[in-house]
C-alpha cells in the first residue's frame, strides 16, 4: 500500500474519494461489499481511522453535521486534495505490487504429519464446508447489488475466484489423500 497508508486507512480514504460519507455510512458500505473479510476495519475503529486521516490532512469534515432521523447528527468527511493524491498513489501500488500472503492453511499443511491421520479428513471437510458457506455469502452479497460499479464487481469476482480455486485445490487434495492414505503423514 505504500509506506504512507495502512490497508485500513486506504480502504476508508478510497470510500471517501468515492463519495463523502459519515462513519455509519462507511460501516454500511464495508458490510454490504463484504470488505470485512479482507480488511481489519471494525465499526469501533472507523472513527479512530478517520481521526488519523484528518490529523494527517488527508480528509476534512465538510458542511454541518447531518442528522439521521431523530438520532445524533453525524459528521461527514471528504478527502482533501492531498488525500486524493495519496489514495491514488497507494491504490496504484496496491494493484501493481505482488505481495506474498501467508494463509494459515500453509502452516497447517507444513505441520500435517503431526495431525492424527484419523482427524485430518474431518479438518479438511470442515474447511470445505467453510469455503462453500463463504462462497454462498459472497454470491448473495454480489447478487443483491447488481448495479454496482465495475470496480466493486471486480472485488466480488476476485474473492469468488480465489475461494473457488481453493475449493478446487482442496477437492483434488482430499481425493489424493483418500487414494493414498500413507500421504497423510505419520501422526504423533
Structural summary, described in words:
This protein is mostly helical and 188 residues long. Helices cover 60% and strands 9% of the residues. The chain has seven helices and three strands; from the N terminus they run αβααββαααα. It has helices spanning 7-18, 23-32, 43-55, 81-96, 104-110, 120-143, 150-179; strands at 21-22, 59-66, 74-79. A three-stranded antiparallel β-sheet has the order 1-3-2. The longest helix has 30 residues, at 150-179. It starts with 6 loop residues before the first helix and ends in a 9-residue tail after the last helix.
> Given the C-alpha coordinates, what overall shape results?
elongated
Please give the number of β-strands.
3
Spans with pLDDT under 50 lasting ≥5 residues? Answer: none
First and last CA, distance: 42 Å
How many helical elements? 7
Mean pLDDT: 90
Strand percentage, roughly? Answer: 5-15%
* Class by alpha and beta content: mainly alpha
The succession of helices and strands, N to C, reads HEHHEEHHHH
What is the third-level CATH name, the topology of the largest domain? Arc Repressor Mutant, subunit A
The structural domain count equals 2
Query: Which CATH class of the largest domain is shown?
Result: Mainly Alpha
CATH superfamily of the largest domain: Winged helix-like DNA-binding domain superfamily/Winged helix DNA-binding domain
- Which oligomerization state do the chains in this entry correspond to? single chain
Main sheet record? 3 strands, antiparallel
The Cα radius of gyration reads 21 Å
Helix coverage percent of residues?
Answer: 55-70%
CATH architecture of the largest domain: Orthogonal Bundle
Strand order within the widest sheet?
A: 1-3-2
Amino acid at each position: 500500500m505504500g509506506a504512507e497508508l495502512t490497508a485500513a486507512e486506504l480502504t476508508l480514504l478510497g470510500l471517501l474519494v468515492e463519495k463523502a460519507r459519515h462513519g455509519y455510512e462507511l460501516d454500511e458500505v464495508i458490510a454490504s461489499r463484504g470488505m470485512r473479510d479482507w480488511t481489519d476495519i471494525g465499526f469501533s475503529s472507523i472513527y479512530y481511522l478517520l481521526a488519523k486521516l484528518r490529523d494527517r490532512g488527508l480528509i476534512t469534515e465538510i458542511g454541518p453535521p447531518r442528522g439521521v432521523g431523530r438520532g445524533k447528527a453525524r459528521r461527514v468527511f471528504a478527502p482533501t486534495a492531498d488525500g486524493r493524491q495519496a489514495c491514488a498513489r497507494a491504490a496504484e501500488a496496491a494493484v501493481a505490487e505482488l505481495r506474498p500472503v501467508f494463509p494459515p492453511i500453509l502452516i497447517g499443511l507444513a505441520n500435517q504429519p503431526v495431525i492424527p491421520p484419523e482427524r485430518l479428513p474431518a479438518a479438511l471437510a470442515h474447511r470445505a464446508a467453510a469455503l462453500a458457506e463463504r462462497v454462498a455469502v459472497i454470491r448473495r452479497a454480489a447478487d443483491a447489488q447488481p448495479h454496482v460499479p465495475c470496480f466493486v464487481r471486480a472485488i466480488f469476482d476476485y474473492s469468488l475466484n480465489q475461494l473457488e480455486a481453493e475449493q478446487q485445490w482442496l477437492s483434488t487434495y482430499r481425493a489424493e489423500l483418500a487414494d493414498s492414505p500413507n500421504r497423510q503423514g505419520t501422526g504423533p
